[in-house]
Amino acid sequence: MKQFAHKAKIRHHEKEDGRDLFLFGTEEHTLKPTNDMPPLTTKPQPHKRWNPFTSEWVVYSPSRQDRTFNPPKEYCPLCAVPEDGYKGEVPFANFEVAVFENRFAGLHLDAKKNLPDDFEYSPALGRCEVVVYSSDHTGNLGKMPNSRRETLVEAWIHRYNDLLSRDQIKFVMPFENRGEAVGVTLPHPHGQIYSFEHVPTYVQNMAKTFRTANLIGDILNNPELVVDESEHFAQIVPPFARFPFESWIVPKKRMAGLWEIQPSQIPDYAELLGRVIRRYDAIFDDTMPYVMLQYSSPKGDEKSFYYNAQFLPFKRDANKLKFLAGCEQGTGVFLADILPEDVAKRLREV
To answer: What SS3 class is residue 27?
Structure first.
């Protein structure tokens, strides 16, 4: 994997319970720690069971039932923690971007096999991290200055390099859930990073297709499906979009993962990322709930995989949410109400 010359200043801090905390910023972070979260009495021991009907693993992590659920702002665990302030996950009075191991992990590198061998199961090995975009409790990636999005990109790259250097990890995916409509329980601007011991079925299928076809190159050559572009990246609508107003950010020149981006290209990527989000918020003059999924190559497919960041919005009109109906959940066959070409046109007009 390509090593990256970081522009961001990086500080590592070990939390009271031994979890890693990384601080990324444009300036050196030298503040003293304040009030950290108390250690849990037990470590998560997630496991996964094989579903033979879908050829997929299902992960079970009962400790996640106890995770924080919509606390008042003054008790938000992602906010900066002033001296003598309420305990938080980032125990400093200020920070720019922070990444820490999830307290309620669905995947864990120390997970043990602790069930009888009467069905196919395995410890859910992996790692779950939380990425906090700002010490401010409000805001979003579209409204933040470009320098903050650049720092976030560098944080993603740092975590890719660290996590994929571990033998157990086969695939790493940063993502963001935004809005109550998609089940967000902490409104503070943040995303997550999941690292898997196995390559999920959807990613396997994507990698298999990239080995034989240059679909993204074909889409980039179709002006009807290109929404916006910068010097090195473009926002496209795939002709097989599953969600209304779905779009992807892709590089104009193939890269296996975001770790292959040139440092000089980061401002370009960050600016387009901001425009994509602002466009979504402008189309219905309201904050768009969405899921953002960062797909970089799993181990072994670096020569053919084509990096893409997918945005799956959860609105199909100004006051209409997109719900997965019975047919979609029961068969995996999505029912789309808007043609991708029309979506691209509407997004271009925003």
So the answer is: coil
